[in-house]
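Ticket #4471: complex job returned nothing on first submit. Input attached below:
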Amino acid sequence: MEPLLEINRLSVDFHTRRGPLQALSEVSLTIRQGETVCLVGESGSGKTVASKSVMRLIDYENGRIAGGRIRLGGLDLASLSQNELRSLRGKKMAMVFQEPMAAFDPVYTIGYQIVETIRRHDSKSKEDAWEHAVSLLDRVGIPEPRIRMKQYPGELSGGMLQRAMIALALSCGPELLIADEPTTALDVTIQAQILQLLQELKEEFGMSILLITHDLGIAAEIADRVVVLYAGRVAEQAPTAELFARPHHPYTRGLLDSIATLDTEKGEKLHSIAGSIPSLTALPNGCLFHPRCPLATDKCRSEAPPLVARGEREWACWHTEELLKTTKGNKRSGGLDAASTAVPPDGALTATSPSSSQELLQVEGVRKYYPVKGSLPGRKRAYIRAVDDVSFSIRQGETFGLVGESGSGKSTLGRVLLQLEKATAGRIRFDGRELTDMGGTSLRSARKDIQMIFQDPYGSLDPRWNVGDIVGEPLRVHERLNASEKKERVARLLESVGLDASYASRYPHEFSGGQRQRIGIARAIALNPKFVLADEAVSALDVSVQAQVVNLLQELQEKLGLTYLFIAHGLQIVRHLSDRIGVMYLGKLVEIAPSHELFLRPAHPYTKALIASVPSADLGAKRERITLQGEIPSPARPPSGCRFHTRCPLATARCREEEPALRAVDPEHVVACHYPL
Amino acid sequence: MVRTIIGRVLSSLLVIAGSSVLVFVIMYLLPGDPVDSLIDPASATPEQIATLRHQLGVDQPLYAQLADYFGKLLRGDFGKSLLNSEPVLPKIIEHFPATLALAAASALLSVIVGVLLGVLSAIHRNRPIDVIARIVGLLGISMPTFWSGILLLLVFSIHLGWLPAMGSDGWKTLVLPAATLGLIGGGFIVRMVRNSMLEVVNEHFIVTLRSKGLSERAIMYRHALRNALIPSVTMIGMLVGEMLAGAVVIETVFSRQGIGRIVADAIMAKDLPVVQGVIVFSAIVYVLVNLLVDISYSYIDPRVRRAA
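Support reply: We reran it on our side without changes. The output follows.
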């Protein structure tokens, strides 16, 4: 059959002050009618540029097609004028973006923006277009579509907005839907819903989908074929099953090995790809991947491998034969040894000895309520119950994971534990001392033992401070060191996180995301704390780099005897790192269990659904599809009884009325559910 | 929505009250005795001075004077001129229309020129129109009005003779003063609109709009401009203050009637009640305009409406 989209040796340049910058080089791919193709790669691989080139949106960003062709159903997109393209965009090809919150014009209603698109391409009356838009919103699963039509983007949740975005994209019946990381900004439960929706709609509307993602799990789940991009070139492409079974490029292999799956064990080192993706201004010679490749030889360093095509597959590597020899079975075969990590392996990391039973942090009945603004005087004051009666404890030397959807209160809880915000009620005891009563000097000295690693490696480092000052600041505050002592300490800290001591005089913008996160970690461990809170510390990083940082965190725990509270929404990583995990839902802890146990035998229906929502890169195990319906309710008006009952498949009348208390189903395993699984 | 408006009105009243008190206190703290400007202290007897002080009420303690002043303000009594005992408020009201006309004309001018140039210069970045807009912006914010006013006078009334040099009757006398004053506002608005347009066109939703197949014209004027105007509207409210302050100079340069002129004369004559009255009156006008801006804001930006 004639392919719907055919990209042939496409090269794209961006015009910059320093001359043209090649973002894509001879990228080819085809999408057949009704096919889903995933474009996979880390940030900087050029996947978004590729998708924007198809829409020719790069023309607005100083981009230019420097060579090659893009054919969509017989039209040569590369040679059309912007005017001709405008009648195709939104009509024949449509796009869904990563940040649903930012993708709508905030000052017009959802309805207006959908109707605007319909009326641009189809000669429909306003009323007909409006009705069509309502039916689309209804189809993509938005409740009360007529009300939503009149709402503004700021009034809808991220998940709802992404549905609305999909409705918008579908409004003129496109043949090709391009989805650029459509679920990256969403919770796993919502992600599962959106992916399922996309698949249903593809059948229904007879479209083809080009899906861009960094998550191989998503690719495994919905793609027919996968194209792996690296630094603007195709590294490999193959039908999904074949790609996952026998990757032909060491980069693909590295990506697959980097994923912490739900069955990697704590203590095991995650495989990571050394280094990070090269910048387009400083591409290496020969094979672009060679500086990070464990199989690289002199040939790789001098000569770029051509794209070899065999059957349905294509790849560009000199050493595929060798790579395949090391692949035993189909999965996680121990990986490529040399690729293991950028951190020098010092000794085998045995599974952390189940930490001493001494409790370092005890949390009792902690609540954090925020008053709702604008409640009228006289009326009962309304509160957002961000954290509502949470009790648990963390033992010396263990890693406690905290998971839940956004809005579950996990980050608030973290901030309250660190006394960055005062608890509304409850007690927090750290190392035998009551933190909640402390103030001023005593709190400041207690903080030496409690440090934090932040989510955003860009926002959490002052761009005008050099690395030495950033890492040395806690030393300056808490310890009296002279300049040379401080310099020495900073140097050792940088080395202990796998950075060069000479980086101390550089500034944050000179570093990649992964390196910045290492700097953040060095700052957190500067004072030899006992306890480190890592709030989504790796979620902003690419998978290969994520693995490096996770390994580093584990290694430091070993070496320094740290206790971690690891907050994240990425379940695989939490499972990999944690000894015990607590699951939060709407301000409540609903389940606490040893990590292994929690994933094997989740007792709370919410935990089970959360686990099931995670897309798996393991093709062999087609997971049970129990995607959670609906979205997390507002913490200002939590449901009565069990807060989860509105979304729980097992809810009964009792759940609606009576709030379940935490009780033990096992000495180590507590759950708040009337009908534990 | 109604609740927000009520809230805003109440806080506006507070601001007016606060600023009247502030004005009074500043006047009180000014060095010099108001009596000095009425009689010659060298020739008057101490009894005469004391009597005069008593008549004016300045022998009272601060709080008593303040209470008296505030009570009168509430009743619409802005006091009397020291020079001719004329009540202040009627005089302000009599002259305000001329200042209002000037302020309105220059505001209109600066908004039209500012928004138009700002948008064009952002859309055609680094093109000739952008260069022109940037020059206008720079001149507008950096030329003092007493200088640019005189310059315009020289060119258009004296050399070319197209427009009258002074007076305040008929639209012709309004053109030059409004242009002088409008230039400042225009300069600010050009820069503001240009910057926020440049910011908005980099927003993600602009890419969405392009991916829908909309024309650039629709994207720029229907979507980007409305978003870019949100911060500019606040700016326009604040410009009213500039206009009122500028009126003092402009009305003097062009020999126009108006409250700016009144206050300039009163300052020269040390006629404090008049100065005080005009300042309080201007404060009220300023607060009212900004109240309107706040309310209109929530009509332009649905996010503000929702937060309310």
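Chain A has 23 helices and 24 strands. Closing as resolved unless it happens again.
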